[in-house]
Amino acid sequence: MEFQPWMLLIFPLFFGMGWLAARIDIKELLSESGALPQSYFQGLNFLLNEQQDKAIEAFIEVVKVDPQTVELHFALGSLFRRRGEIDRALRMHHNLVDRADLDNDKRQQAIFELAQDYLKAGILDRAESLFRELENTTYAKPALEFLLELFQKEHDWIKAIGVAQRLAEVSGVPYGKQAAFFYCELAQEEVAGGDQDAAHKHLRQALESHPASVRATMMLGDMAAGEGRLDEAIGLWKNIEAQDAQYLPLVAERLLNAFQSMGREAEAIVLLRGYLQKYHSLDMMNVVFDGVLKNEGPAAAYKLVRDELQRNPTLLGLDKLLEARLLEVPLEHRADIELVKNLVHKRTRNLATYHCGHCGFKARQFYWHCPACHAWDSYPPRRTEETGDAI
Description:
CATH topology of the domain at 248-349: Serine Threonine Protein Phosphatase 5, Tetratricopeptide repeat
CATH class of the domain at 248-349: Mainly Alpha
Helix content: over 70%
Distance between the termini: 75 Å
Radius of gyration: 33 Å
């Protein structure tokens, strides 16, 4: 395309249009700012000069003069809360809640924000009361979620169960799994207090709420074993395979001890060997190793670990193999094996940890409730060979 002289006229035309648009925007901006109350600019000035209390008073005055600035109150209140200035956030949101001319939607929003202020301040009874006010409003779901968090922190499991059930109704999302954990926490407190009947009732309710609740089944088995009903306990723990087989290693030692108490060690070893073949885990291998060592001797224990190490090579498996070998060889040949075992053992001391799938927190023991992020059922019941610190 060739250059034409008339094209030069386009550039002044575009420049003129841009200048005109800018003039219109400036006039509009000046018109809008002129319509704002003087208190608005005073408030901004106070805020910029770190005089927050004076800024709050000025902005409260703004809302009295111009209700359109209510959103400014919400924004500032949230800002103060995030910065940890809870008293200021409370003043901003209290002023909104107390306004008689606030429409219903804005009033609900103000109550929701005020409840969060009280929660952050640790004034839990006031927070609970305000969140309860919102149960039948458009803020029902987030209000109930905050209540659920609140009751878990307070270990008020009865209220937490009620809120979980209400949340399921409001959101359409099942909360049966969470409720089952709350029933288990309640039962655990009751077992500690000696109320076995109440604990049994709540564990059954946990299974009604979530039939795959492994924790409830484990606890029912523990209660049965504690009362001498070993066959019932074994039956309950074996049911875990149908619920979620990956949790079987958590009851492997319980099963071995229960069978041994009845003089049925061989039956236990057959059962646990079968589990180990189907669901390999380090914990399961350790329990089977101990059972085989005690009942069949070092040679059988060595063979067990060697076969398992060939299927699933791990440093922890090697450590067990060397342990079994030490028990089998003559005394004069143990020095070299002990040297190697000590080296391997030093390397494996920080291995075999459980990892939270939610926050990555590592622990040497299994948790149903992560001590770091407080997520439920976030620990897969399998140890992983990873180095690093763990509690």
